[in-house]
Amino acid sequence: MKNPDWKRTLAYSAVVALALSIGACTPSEENSRQPRSTLVLGIDVSGSFYAGGTYDDAIAFASHYLHGHLNGLGDLAVPSAVFIGSVGGELPGETKSFQPIHAFQGKNPEEIATVLREQFPSQDGLTDFNAFFDRVTTLVKRQGLTLAPLNVVVLSDGIHDPTANATDEASRYSAIDLSPLEYLSRSVTVRLLYATPTVCVAWERDIERRRVRMWTVDQDVMGGWREQLGSDVSGGTSDRLWRWVSDNVDFRVRSRVL
To answer: What is the pTM of this model?
Structure first.
């Protein structure tokens, strides 16, 4: 005579087997579904940024920043698309090209820094953020990246040169136009690094935006990244740097309350 609970036991065993099979395939599914994101790095090549003494440090930081993200070091996210371009030109609105991710893959920070100095030497006269943001918009649309979150990191003193003679200080920053980025992606964040504290506040306060998220890190705070390197860039020392980057540069910005 069969156990009267045999049907219940059989059903329970089937549920357990199904749960185990789902758990077994979860890691591979997660690995195949890495979230897509786009990283655009803009380097100020104007004479004013170089004269301020932070261009060299910005290049060094950018090389480590790219190296960390391209290799997923620490908890840094690996972007699915990376482009590096210059913020500056001899004339307002001057168009310049972007370097793709392939120019930096497989290189260490020192090698990346060499490429950055070769491709983006500080020799231009103007810093035109509007021209840069327009080029970013065109690039993202052309590459079909509008569905992926967009992270635009700008290493600059934050001074918009086409309005350098403006009598009203606030108008210098309100002239910066982020509207091309507003509906470019479901999530767009602009990060300004290396400006003075005063300029950082002006970017956050005076630049009109609705959906674009803004995050600034002034030059005094950025000066702390080298302290995380210690005497070398291996092992736990690097872990300190990647944590610093996550906490200070890649900070997750909330949507602006309108």
So the answer is: 0.82
